Amino acid sequence: MRQAVQPLAPVEATGPHQAAAEAEPIVEIDALNKVYRTVRHGDVHALHEINLNVRDGEFVAIVGPSGCGKSTLLKILAGLLAFTSGRVTINGAPLKGPSQEVGLVFQQPVLLPWRTILSNVLLPIEFGRNRKRKDYTDRAHDLLKLVGLEGFETRYPEELSGGMQQRAAIVRALIQDPRLLLMDEPFGALDAMTREQMNLEVLRIWQQNRKTVIFVTHSISEAVFLADRVVVMTARPGAIARVLDIDLPRPRRLEMINSEAFGAFASQIRRLLNASEDLS
């Protein structure tokens, strides 16, 4: 097993947007480690000494090589996976398991084919204590309208395109009004044009709801386009090489991708990724 990668030397970056910079942290991660213990391969170190604070209302993207632990980190934050050591607090409370405060959007929509779209997005309510489906129906309709799915409530997943299915999955993650939204490469399976439109869609939803978002992606341009800050991770064991402030104006527009400032941020992240892989 290689030695843990040390953080790279600082690089110049401008500060984050003022509102996010002044907000209190909603996610606090201190010295987080995740080790998988296996009989066949011994200890597999997935995450090494992760330290990260995410502020209320902030949009943070995470990029890194395949297998660096990005999705593992999201599963830990969702309460679906135990960590080996360290400390994680969400909204000031120690993380102990799945919480109504946290919504998760998977890489695939994972909609139940025998349930209508409305029934799919209300599914989390059925697992909650002392919660009645009818109390959330109006919210479900409002959210479906917000993402452009008004009129599709009684349709089934097979009747919707991939992008529309993923919109329904976003509504399902938002149905309980979480403070933190985790998105694990949600648009990776979509074609380029649909992916661009979904990026605009998620920004529109974020700007209206101002949830705190942690977004995992393999796409450097997607990370720069969406985020206030981009967390660059090293190869396994996954450590944070750098947290880069993306000082681009909002609202973000697609033509911004061709700007010099956008290209400079993308190139900087690419250099950080290449440098961290060279150390592996």
List the helices and strands and how they pair.
Elements: H1 18-22, E1 25-38, E2 42-55, E3 59-63, H2 70-77, E4 85-90, E5 93-94, E6 102-105, H3 117-121, H4 123-126, H5 133-146, H6 162-174, E7 180-184, H7 192-209, E8 212-216, H8 220-226, E9 229-233, E10 240-245, H9 260-278
Parallel strand pairs: 3-8, 3-9, 6-7, 7-8
Antiparallel strand pairs: 1-2, 1-4, 4-5, 9-10
Helix pairs in contact: 8-9
How many domains, as an integer?
Answer: 2
Question: How many angstroms does the end-to-end distance come to?
Answer: 10 Å
CATH H-level superfamily title of the largest domain: P-loop containing nucleotide triphosphate hydrolases
- Cα radius of gyration in angstroms: 19 Å
Instruction: Order the strands across the largest sheet as they lie in space.
Output: 6-7-8-3-9-10
Major sheet size, sense and barrel closure: 6 strands, mixed
- How many β-strand stretches? 10
Please tally the helical runs, counting DSSP H or I stretches of 4 or more residues. 9
**Shape-level CATH architecture of the largest domain:** 3-Layer(aba) Sandwich
- Return the structural class: alpha/beta
| Shape category | globular
Low-confidence stretches: 1-16
- Estimated helix fraction: 25-40%
Which CATH class of the largest domain? Alpha Beta
Estimate the mean pLDDT confidence: 89
Our estimate of the beta-strand percent is: 15-25%
Give the SSE order as H and E letters.
HEEEHEEEHHHHEHEHEEH
CATH fold field value of the largest domain = Rossmann fold
